[in-house]
Amino acid sequence: MENLSVSQLAAGLDHGEFSSVELTRHFLHRMQAHGELNAFITEMDESAIVQARRADQLIKEKKHGPLTGIPLAHKDIFCMDGTRTSCGSRMLDQFVAPYDATVVQKLGQAGCVVLGKTNMDEFAMGSSNENSYFGPVKNPWNPGHVPGGSSGGSAAAVAARLVPLATGTDTGGSIRQPAALCGITGLKPTYGRVSRYGMIAYASSLDQAGPLAKSAQDCAYLLQAMAGFDSRDSTSMDEPVPAYTQALDQPLQGRVIGIPDEYFGAGLKPEVQDIMAQAIDWAEGQGCIIQPIRLPNTELAIPAYYVIATAECSSNLSRFDGIRFGHRCKAPKDLHDLYRRSRSEGFGTEVKRRIMIGTYALSAGYYDAYYLKAQQIRRLISTDFSKAFETVDFILGPTAPEPAFRIGEKTDDPVTMYLSDIYTISVNLAGLPAISVPCGMHEGLPVGMQLIGNYLTEDRLLNFAHQYQLATDWHRQCPPGFAQGSVDE
Amino acid sequence: MIRWEAVIGLEIHVQLATQSKIFSAASTAFGAEPNTQACAVDLGLPGVLPVLNLEAVRMAVMFGLAIDATIAQHSVFARKNYFYPDLPKGYQISQYELPIVEHGRLEITLDDGVQKVIGITRAHLEEDAGKSLHEEFDEFTGVDLNRAGTPLIEVVSEPDMRSAKEAILYMKKIHSIVRYLGISDGNMQEGSFRCDANVSIRPAGDAGYGTRTEIKNLNSFRFVERAIDFEIGRQTAVLEDGGEIAQETRLYDDVTGETRSMRSKEEANDYRYFPDPDLLPVVIPQDMVEAIRGQLPELPSEKATRFCTQYGLDAHDAETLATSRELAEYFEHTARHTDAKAKLVVNWITGELSAALNQDHIEITESPVSSTMLAGLLNRIEDGTISGKIAKDVFRSMWTGEGDADTIIESRGLRQITDDSEIERLVDQVLQDNPEQVEQFRSGKDKVFGFFVGRVMKLSQGKANPKQVNGLLRKKLK
Questions:
Q1: Which of A278, B39, B235, B438 has its CA 20 to 30 A from that of A487?
Q2: Does the beta carbon of B81 lie under 8 angstroms from any beta carbon of chain A?
Q3: Domain boundaries, chain B
Q4: pLDDT tens digit string along B110-154?
Q5: What is the pLDDT of residue A484?
Q6: How far is B83 from chain A (nearest CA, A)?
Q7: Distance (Å) from the C-alpha of residue B79 to the closest C-alpha of chain A?
Q8: Architecture of domain B420-477
């Protein structure tokens, strides 16, 4: 059952082969049986059964949609009414959200059954899930390795078949990189495609929610229910949402694929490069036109990102002051002591590091040299992409420079850690959509390719990925010990 | 001996009269139970986002047009970062580099009748913070976030004022404009209109500026005047003693009437302003500006000019009436419903009516004597039914709710006696009862005339037409 696709699960529910309650129990059982992955922060077995019963009723009354009764997990960054929403932080360890994020609300209306809230790097800051107050998540392919981050819990849970679908958020690669490292499919939509309301902000101008699933087709179902304009988010796009699942079958003949030099330079593991070459060959075989391109400002993306994202986070995280909600230190001496100790105790090292960097970058006398300069670079990077998209339909390259690294390998060197997002970060700076698709294995660990599209071309990205997945079975690979077979088609 | 000149600039915070807050749907009504008008957005809960209230933008544009300012086609909200318990997000959403209104001007009329232009650097939109309550909780400070997110415009003047008096004139004019536009109730007790004053002094005639101090949170015209005057005196004393003025923020204590240091420049926050990534730039197309311009009400200065030409009022009366929209409306309504001269209407409004309002501490909109009732009263003076003196009694009866002028005049028989024969009868009786005084008058003591008038009026219970009484007395005493 855990290997079925969303459309197969929906058909099974529709034909009465199994009920949503049965389906839910099956996945709850798997979730509880694989606690060693540490993929979940909060398990929600009781409410899940209640939701599954309601879904079964709707299915019986033929009032259901394509996701009614399908189990799902939310990254613990999305506020959920009456549920602890920790954001992976001690600061919000006891925080029970009093409202639903738009994404939570929409998927609830679509009839999804929420199994739990997934583990993540604290406040979505990290690329390995080692920055969680609730401990690191293990990669299901090898428990000694990281699952990637920050949506590592969601990626690991989907990869291990603990849940068919999961939501994630991506500020610099936080959906795509863990999807690649765990061997699943993950899509970061165009900035503004999915509402940010109720999603705890890390860097507001970069944050974007998206789907994680085994396949592009499953991602299409999930994105369909997540996307759309929201009057509560001023930065959400008031553009119609296309029928993603109906665009999957277009032929790829004649599509132009740009291969950026800068994504294949030093730092890319040679074996990953070989795997990319095979994927490019496949595309050529489909009648795609392969064209080398330049994205000359790529190397500036990481420094620009670590100024903009940290500047925004230093301000976004000011509300965690111990006054109204969140962690408050014991017996504060005065207001200053209350602020200082509540925040010192509530935030982890990486979060504090980024708040400090961002505060510095915005300070009087440094603003022009750092924040404004970074914004200029951001525009240059956007221009690089828009020039490229004058001649190409997609840009293809690796999602990450190497497969999953070992837990603890990069924790002492934040800059090395930051480099694992080198291919994903510029996409956020430009606000473009991009998908990560499993495309090979190296030493028992998955490798992902990233396909970047122009604004609002999620349908085309999913189309390409789906066609690739019809021809390959990398997305059907299941980590040993987590499944009896491969995904049925 | 150096003669010192004060240089004053004001930052006025005007609370906008929108139904809901600037970035959320919560109500802005004043006086609710603490924290009952603060929604998830106002509380700064994790994950919430601001959505701009277009009504606040419209009001800011109205204000900009009323002060002849430039309306920015593109303005940007920025975050002003600092920690305080009544600031839920740890930053205030304000405007910094690109405000919505810039380069405005306002004319004030000084005591000697000279017009002076005060420059207005900018007016920007921002959200208010909540309130910290220090008194009701032992060892704790309470936080009430009802006010958090209430829309404000901060109006920043050029340092163009040279005395506390000028500052007050400017402030009153801004107050009058925002109330005219209907964009603020201007209620100073409730904090809807408050002011920070920047004050420095320099030797008269110097072009440069001295070091300034900023006096925070002045919420009455009187406090602004006293605080500025105190501060000018204090700075003068410091400089004349050979000392230096420290650039600092000061607080005005309304009990002592003094200002005291709150924080120095060194302790000032670095607010780390940057554009708020949760909000898009505010884009105001020219046609929207023109549409709003078309909806602007008549402003105080325009109204005063019209009152002069239309009603033949002098400039002083016209400006007094035009200060408040409600007062001006009361005047016009009264004038339209009476045949009495406009000057008489003005005298009654600025005299009897104003005195009664002040005495009962009520606004003109709450006056028990409506403009229609006042017009009715003035009509009875105009047609000679009652004298001006009796009219004052009738006014007081109207004030206490005895009905309109006609009802009171009839029920209390106050109609003026204009029948010559009846007045003659009264005059004859008075002359007959006072032969001694008649003798005195006839022997040349003119002053006694007043005595006769008084007696006749008294005998008629004030109802005899004074003109006729005069005439008849003169005739009889010849």
A1: A278
A2: yes
A3: 4-291, 298-411, 420-477
A4: 888 888 999 999 999 999 999 988 877 877 889 999 999 999 999
A5: 60
A6: 7
A7: 8
A8: Orthogonal Bundle (1.10)
Residues 254-283 of B with CB under 8 A from A: 270, 272-274, 277-280
> DSSP characters for A16-54?
TSS-HHHHHHHHHHHHHHTGGG--EEEE-HHHHHHHHHH
Percent with pLDDT over 90 in chain A: 95
Gap between the terminal Cα atoms of chain B: 70
Q: The tokens of B113 are what?
A: 């009748």
- How far is CA A30 from each of CA A23, A179, A186, A441, rounded to the nearest angstrom? 11, 20, 22, 25
The DSSP 8-state label assigned to residue B137 in this structure reads S
User: Within chain A, which residue ranges are assigned CATH 3.90.1300.10?
Assistant: 6-258+395-476
B85 part of contact set with chain A, CB < 8 Å: yes
The Cα B445–Cα B194 span in angstroms is 63
**Running DSSP on this structure, what letter comes out for residue A393?**
S
Nearest CB partner across the interface for B83, out of A95, A311, A318: A318
Pairwise CA distance, residues B433 & B449, whole Å:
15
Q: Does position A488 have pLDDT exceeding 50, yes or no? A: no
For Cα atoms A122, A123, A128, give the angle at the middle one, nearest 5 degrees: 50
Question: B330-349: buried (b, 16+ CB within 10 Å) or exposed (e) per residue?
Answer: bbbbbbebbebebebbbbbb
3-state secondary structure of B417: strand
Peptide linkage before A150 cis (omega within 30 of 0)? yes
Instruction: Convert A276-296 to b/e letters by CB count within 10 Å (16 or more is b).
Output: beebbebbeebebeeeebebe
Active site residues of A: 75, 150, 174
Decide the pairing of beta strands B151-157 and B115-127: antiparallel
Q: Kindly report the nearest CA distance between residue B199 and chain A, in angstroms.
A: 25
Query: Cβ of B46 and A364 within 8 Å?
Result: no
Contact call for B280 and A205, based on CB within 8 A: no
Q: A218 and A165 in contact (C-beta within 8 Å)?
A: yes
Class of domain A6-258+395-476: alpha beta
Sign of the four-CA dihedral B199, B200, B205, B207 = negative
Question: Of B224, B222, B244, nearest to B235 (Cα)?
Answer: B244
How many C-beta neighbours within 10 Å does residue A404 have? 30
Looking from the CA of A347 toward its CB, the CA atoms found within 13 Å total 25
pLDDT above 70 (res A40): yes
pTM: predicted TM-score of the whole model, two decimal places: 0.89
- pLDDT recorded at residue A6: 98
CB pairs < 8 Å spanning A and B: 99
- Which region holds residue A55: left if phi is over 0, alpha if psi is between -120 and 50, else beta? alpha
Residue in B48, B85, B280 closest to A335 by CB: B85
Contact A168, A107 (CB under 8 A): no
Determine which of A91, A117, A324, A428 to mutate to test the interface with B (most B C-beta atoms within 10 Å). Answer: A324
The list of chain B residues with pLDDT below 50 reads none
Measured N-to-C along each axis, helices B325-336 and B300-311 cross at an angle, to the nearest 10 degrees, of: 20
Pairing of strands B248-253, B213-218: parallel
Per-residue buried b or exposed e for B433-463, using 16+ beta carbons within 10 Å of the residue's own CB = ebeebbeebeeeeeebeeebbebbbebbebb
Cβ-based burial of A221 (10 A; exposed 0-12, middle 13-18, buried ≥19): buried
Q: How many CB atoms lie within 10 A of CB B233?
A: 14
Q: Do A232 and B46 touch (CB under 8 A)?
A: no
